[in-house]
Amino acid sequence: VIEIDRLLKMGNKARKELARANRRREKDIEELNAQIRGYGVLNDYNRQKMRLWNESEGYSPYEPERKIPLEELFTDKYNLDHIVPKSKIFDFSNDNLVLAPKHLNEAKNRMTGQDFAESLGIRENYIEFVNSRKFSDRKKQFLLMSEDDIPTDWLSRSAGTDYNTRCFLTLAPGAYCIPNKLVNMYLRQWHWDAYDEDDVRNSLAKSYVLANFDKATLDYFDNIKYLSNDGISISFEKLPFPLRGKSDGSFVSAYSIEPNIIMPYLKNVRVYVPRVKFFRKTKHGHTTRFALHKETVYGERKRYRRNAKGEIITDLYYQVRQPISKMSNNMLKNISDKAIQRILLKDVEKYGSIADAVQAWNETPPKFNGKPIRSVAVAFKSSSLTPLHSAYKGETAKFSKYSRKVDFVYNSMMYSVKIEDGKRVTKPLIQALRELNEGTFTDKDSFHKGDKVAYEGNPYFISGIEESGAISLRSVYTLKAENALKLTKVEDILKLERIKEGQV
Predict the structure, then answer these.
(1) 266-323, pLDDT tens digit by residue?
(2) Using an 8 Å Cβ cutoff, are 359 and 15 in contact?
(3) In sequence order, what are the beta bridge partners of 419?
(4) CA 155, 160, 165, 168 torsion: positive or negative?
(5) How far apart are CA 54 and CA 45, in angstroms?
(6) Pick from 498, 500, 502, 417: which is nearest to 455 by CA?
(7) What's the pLDDT tens digit per position in 10-54?
(8) Which of 231-235, 412-416, 424-428, 435-439 has the highest mean pLDDT?
C-alpha cells in the first residue's frame, strides 16, 4: 500500500513554509560556498565542516584554546567527530557532530565527548566552552553526555516522529514505527536506494522494511551501548534484520534477505498512482475534469483595434485567472497586467525556457510590489472557450429538468488519437463531450489522456495529446508531473499497447 506523497496533500500554509525552508537552505549553501571558496573544494563534506566551524565560532571543544585556521580546516588535519559514538547511540545528525583534530579524534575512540575531555584533563574548560556557545539544547545534551547518561530508549523516543512511518502504522496496526534514517540505512545496505524519493518503488522498499521490523530489532538499537561494552562489534555496513530475542537476553538474526532476491521484483513491478479521470458522469450528464473553474472567468470583455484599412474592429475575450504554475508561452503573451508580464518575461529569459521558469516559480514565486505572484489574469479569445452546461440547453448536455451552468472549457483541448491508414486523427474535447451526452460516442479503440499504456515494454500514463497527434507519456512510477517521452511519429505511436485494469 502506497501513501500518497505529502506534497500532494499539503495545504497552502504548509507549502509556503516548505518553499521558505528551501529558500533558506539554498541561501545557506550560497553563504557557505562563499566562505569556503579559496580555501577548499566546494562539496557537502566541506560545507558541513564550515557549518560546524561557524557554529563553534572556529574552535574544537577538545582544543578550546586554539582557533582553527581556515587554511587547515579543509585539510586532513581536522575530522568530523560524533560526540557520542555511533556504537553507543544511534544518531547521525548534525547535533551529534563537532570538529576534532585528527590525532585527538583517533585517541577519543569510543568515548563520549565529556568523558574524553575529562581524560585530557580539560573538563572545566570543555564545559565552559559548551555553555558559552549558542548551541542548540539537543547539541548541548550530546556534548554534556557521559557514558552513564546515554539513554537506553534513544531510538524508541523518535519512533512515530517520521511522516512515512506514521502513515505505515495507520495501515499496519501492531507494526513498530522506527525513524526514517534507520529505514534508509537498510535501503542502502540492500542497494534498494536506486530510486529517488518521488519514485513509488522507493515507498515500496520502505514499506517492506517496516513490515518486517520487530520489537527485538528496535531493542537491539536501543541497547547498542551495552553490546559495544561487551565487545560485540557493531557493523553499520551489515545491519542485523530481522532479529529475534533469545532467553538469555541476547539477539540472533532469524533470517536474512539477499538484495538480489527483492530488487528484480521492485524493478519490474508496476505500481500505478491514482489515475486522473478525464470525464466525470453525474446525474446532470458528462462534464470534464479539466475545465476552467467558473469563478476564475470574469465575464466577456471587449477591446478595439484598427485593421490595415483603418477600420475599427471589436475583439471579444474572456479574462481568466490562471496560476503561474500552468503558464505557457501563449498565456505569457496575453497577460493583462503588463508590469507583471515584464517581470515574468525577464525570468523566462533568465532561466532559458518557460518550463524551467515555471519550475523555479513553483519553488520561489517572483514578486511584484513586494508580494509573491501566484496567479495572473490572462486574456483568452472568446472563440477559444466554450461555456459548458450540465443540463438544459447547454453546449454538451441533453435537455432535462436540471439546469446548472458548470464551467468553461478550451476548444483546442484534444481528447483522443486514432491511427487510420498511417494518419493521426484527434478529436476536440468539446466534440467528445457532446457525443457522450448524445449517446453517439464510439471512440473505444483510441487512446485518451490518462490511459495506461506500454511502450517498448515499459508502462506509462498518457499525460497529453496535442492537436498534431503527438502523445506525451509520463512514467507510472513517479509522482512528479513530468513527461518522460513525447511520441510524434506514427510508427512510434503504433507501438503503444493499452494496459487493461489489473494487468501487470
Answers:
(1) 666 665 555 556 677 776 677 777 666 666 677 778 888 898 888 999 988 888 888 8
(2) no
(3) 424
(4) positive
(5) 14
(6) 498
(7) 666 777 787 788 888 888 999 999 999 989 999 999 999 999 999
(8) 424-428
Look up residue 267 and give its three cell numbers: 524493478
Q: How far apart are CA 494 and CA 473, in angstroms?
A: 14
The kind and range of the H/E element at 78 are strand 78-82
> How does 266-305 read in b/e, with b if 16+ C-beta sit within 10 Å?
beeeeeebeeeebbeeeebbbbbebbbeeebbeeeeeeee
Q: Which helix (H) or strand (E) holds 347?
A: helix 338-351
Containing 361, the helix (H) or strand (E) segment is helix 354-363
Q: List residues bridging with 80 in a β-sheet.
A: 99
| 409 to 303, 412, 467: CA distances (angstroms) | 22, 9, 15
Q: Tell me how far apart the alpha carbons of residues 143 and 112 are, in angstroms, rounded to a whole number.
A: 8
Count of H-run helices and E-run strands, the chain? 19, 23
Helical ranges in 273-337 per DSSP H: 329-333
Q: What is the pTM of this model?
A: 0.56
Q: Order of strands, edge to edge, in the sheet holding 497-498?
A: 485-487, 471-475, 458-465, 452-455, 497-498
CA distances from 157 to 82, 86, 149, 168, 216 (A): 20, 17, 15, 17, 16
Q: Which three cell numbers stand for residue 205?
A: 522498499
Backbone angles phi, psi at 314, to 5 degrees: -100, 120
Q: Which of 336, 337, 326, 331 is nearest to 361 (CA)?
A: 326
Residue linked to cell 536506494: 193
Pull the grid cell for residue 221. Answer: 538499537
Q: Which region, left, alpha or beta, applies to residue 191 given φ > 0 means left and ψ of -120 to 50 means alpha?
A: left
What span, in angstroms and rounded, lies between the C-alpha atoms of 329 and 118?
67
| DSSP one-letter string for 299-316 | EEEEEEEE-TTS-EEEEE
> Cα-atom radius of gyration of the chain, to the nearest Å?
30
Give the number of residues written for the chain. Answer: 504
Distance CA 41, CA 44 (A): 9
| Cα–Cα distance for residue pair 99/205, rounded to 1 Å | 35
Q: What is the dihedral of CA 471, 472, 475, 480, to 10 degrees?
A: -150
